[in-house]
Design a protein that fits this description.
The complex is a heterodimer of chains A (294) and B (349). With 294 residues, chain A is mainly α. Chain A has one domain: Orthogonal Bundle (ABC transporter involved in vitamin B12 uptake, BtuC). Chain A has eleven helices and two strands. A two-stranded antiparallel ribbon of chain A has the order 1-2. In chain A, a hairpin with a 2-residue loop joins strand 1 and strand 2. In chain A, helix 2 packs across helix 9, helix 5 crosses helix 6 and helix 5 runs antiparallel to helix 8. Chain A starts with a helix and ends in a 14-residue tail after the last helix. Chain B is mainly alpha-helical and 349 residues long. Helix content of chain B is 72%, strand content 1%. Chain B contains 14 helices and two strands. In chain B, strands 1-2 form a two-stranded antiparallel ribbon. In chain B, helix 2 packs antiparallel against helix 10 and helix 3 crosses helix 10. The radius of gyration of chain B is 20 Å and the shape is globular. The chains are: A mainly alpha (294), B mainly alpha (349). The interface between A and B is large, with 64 and 65 residues.
């Protein structure tokens, strides 16, 4: 039983990371119906920035953390303005390809600037753990979960209680009507990319102590985030976070208890879960059922 | 008229292929053979993406399935390598069909999402079953050598084999995208609602397109394995799938001849052109151009520039030069500004 709880707890921490990146995907998808394939690489790149701030510029962890969030926010807005906005009228394939081009550029740039070698990334949390009823809860896991949860709550409050948040929700729900009501939707799309970049940066900085820092570290995480977003319903922010946490726990349990599934098989299993969810409930667990005319 | 243009284009291509060995070194011929390999893969992916409108980020893995099929048959079962090529195509095609069947349940972004997971999952599966696949080390094929009693330079032999197969697969692709079936493919791309209303089963068409494209990639993968004489999980990274999709866009989605340009891009963009451009820049700015990742940056930037300036790819540019007007077909058509999505029929809330 203790083993079971242990597995669940460490799954929660990983799952919250998947959830935050999934939330970033959903933010952009809801506003523009475009899947941002560069989301993972944006997260990786900002994590490198925080690493450079800490190791090369002598900042301590938390100041570097918040400076990185600011940089990520500005970077997200910048990318949307420079790369995505000019393609507003282009075909879906063109926009998807543009985000893939971004993926390639950011991946190459990180290797170019910081070398593709694996780097150790410091963790702000102690390596010790609490023992509650025989269950070891590592402070690393608890801290990760706490940071991600805090970010999601802050974002939710922003969307729920500020005028800007309301405008962003309106813009995502019905761009044409929002524009007619005087909402500057193009500005809001840029803001959406900014927030998505911030969430990505958080997930990157939280995942780096466990996965180590390499230009490819977010590729697998991005797939898990996709699976999480689909699990929760691509339209639903709450669903994305829930889906992430569920997926993290599920994968941990499967790897722990099904001996056939080695860590190499984690991704295929995630793909399997994704396909099964799409077959049974294409709108995800919390998504609105999509009414199709055909 | 279109028929004449098509025949003339094919004739020009065949002539170029036949004459190339007299102009190029053996090393270049090997590279051009790989162009034929990529051409076959791109033709398949174009049938799926350009003609049926389904984006796939996973077709590098189907090439991998074909390559592993060829390798395992040759190394572990003593097959002749040429005979394995059709088998590689069929096995990959079956994998594609198996993935395509559930995948037809979802449209647009969902499919691209799911296919993005294929290459990474493929690598995981290869490592999980090392007895069958050789695990992380992979497997080695015999040295490239000419067969059928011919005593040719191996590169020339490989060039001849690859282009012969490519020049069969190209007219075959033309046959597939023409007629009733081809119209059904385009109907699904342009409007799922209208095609369903006209009695086209979108699920059947999509999974068939998935299977056909995977078959093409499997054939390409088998040839690729014979050419580079080894397979391991790193041979088919996610980058390969991205590169294939890039080839489609640069060549011009929805144009089969465009794929010849696309294949040239895929083979040469990273190894030759990227560094050349970088060297030009570095003379001005003193950049370290041999640094890892620099080639990727250039390749990504080229892709972005093409997306802005010529979203219909090389084929679109040629068409504009020949006809004097920019004909936009299929994928390169701008999105409608109405909130409801015509591809999925999802009504905006």
């Amino acid at each position: 039983m203790a083993q079971f709880l242990q597995t669940v707890v460490s799954g929660l921490a990983l799952g919250s990371i998947y959830g935050s990146l999934a939330l970033a995907l959903v933010l952009i998808y809801k506003a523009t119906e475009v899947i941002n394939f560069a989301q993972g690489e944006m997260a990786m790149f900002t994590t490198y920035i925080s690493w450079a701030l800490i190791t090369h510029h002598g900042m301590s962890y938390w100041p570097a953390f918040f400076v990185t969030l600011l940089i990520a926010f500005a970077g997200g807005i910048g990318l949307q303005t420079v790369v995505v906005r000019p393609l507003a009228r282009a075909s879906v394939l063109t926009v998807v390809m543009a985000t893939i081009a971004l993926l390639v550029i950011l991946n190459g740039a990180a290797a170019w600037i910081w070398s593709p070698q694996l780097q150790f990334y410091p963790s702000p949390f102690p390596t010790s753990s609490w023992v509650i009823g025989g269950v070891h809860i590592s402070k690393q896991d608890a801290g990760t979960f706490g940071v991600v949860a805090a970010c999601v709550v802050v974002l939710a409050l922003f969307f729920r209680f500020t005028k800007l948040g309301l405008a962003m929700r309106a813009g995502a729900l019905n761009p044409a009507a929002a524009r007619l009501m005087g909402v500057r939707t193009s500005l809001l799309l840029a803001l959406g990319w900014g927030f998505a970049a911030v969430l990505g940066a958080v997930s990157g900085m939280m995942v780096a102590p466990t996965f180590f820092l390499t230009p490819n570290m977010m590729q697998a995480v991005l797939i898990y985030a996709f699976a999480a977003a689909v699990l929760g319903g691509l339209e639903s922010p709450v669903g994305a976070v829930t889906g992430g946490v569920l997926l993290g726990v599920m994968l941990n349990l499967i790897t722990q208890y099904v001996t056939f599934v080695t860590p190499d098989l984690q991704l295929p299993v995630a793909l399997g879960i994704l396909l099964v969810v799409l077959l049974i409930r294409p709108s995800g667990l919390l998504g609105r059922a999509v009414v199709r005319r055909v | 008229m279109r028929r004449v243009t098509a025949l003339v284009s094919f004739g020009v291509l065949v002539t170029a292929v036949v004459l190339a060995p007299t102009f190029f070194t053996h090393y270049r011929l090997f590279q051009l053979a790989l162009v034929a390999v990529y051409l076959v893969a791109l033709l398949g992916l174009d049938i799926l993406t350009g003609f049926t409108g389904q984006i796939s980020l996973g077709h590098g893995a189907f090439m991998g399935v074909g390559a592993y099929t060829t390798t395992i048959l040759v190394v572990d079962h003593g097959w002749n390598d040429l005979l394995t090529i059709p088998v590689a195509g069929v096995v990959a095609g079956l994998f594609g069909l198996a993935f395509g069947l559930p995948a037809t349940r979802f449209a647009g972004p969902y499919l691209a999402l799911a296919t993005f997971a294929i290459p990474l999952s493929f690598i995981g599966l290869l490592k999980r079953f090392p007895h069958f696949t050789g695990g992380g080390i992979g497997k080695n094929l015999p040295q490239l050598h000419s067969e059928l009693g011919l005593h040719m330079n191996p590169s020339v032999w490989f060039y001849a084999v690859c282009w012969m197969i490519a020049l069969v697969m190209l007219p075959l692709a033309f046959g597939i995208v023409r007629g009733r079936f081809g119209r059904a493919l385009r109907a699904v791309r342009d409007s799922e609602i209208a095609s369903t209303a006209n009695g086209v089963s979108t699920a059947t068409i999509k999974s068939a397109a998935f299977g056909i494209s995977a078959f093409y990639c499997g054939v390409a993968g088998g040839l690729y394995a014979i050419g580079i004489t080894y397979v391991n999980p790193d041979t088919f990274p996610i980058d390969l799938s991205i590169l294939l999709l890039t080839g489609i866009v640069l060549g011009g989605a929805g144009s089969l001849y465009g794929m010849v340009f696309g294949a040239l891009f895929v083979e040469f963009i990273r190894i030759s052109w990227g560094p050349t451009i970088l060297n030009g820049i570095s003379r001005v700015h003193h950049l370290d151009t041999h640094a890892p990742g620099s080639g990727l940056v250039v390749y990504g930037l080229i892709l972005l520039v093409v997306l802005y300036l010529a979203p219909a790819g090389a084929a679109g540019v040629v068409r504009r030069l020949m006809t004097g007007r920019s004909t936009v077909a299929g994928w390169s058509k701008p999105r409608s500004t109405t909130p409801s999505d015509p591809a999925t029929g999802v009504e905006a809330p």
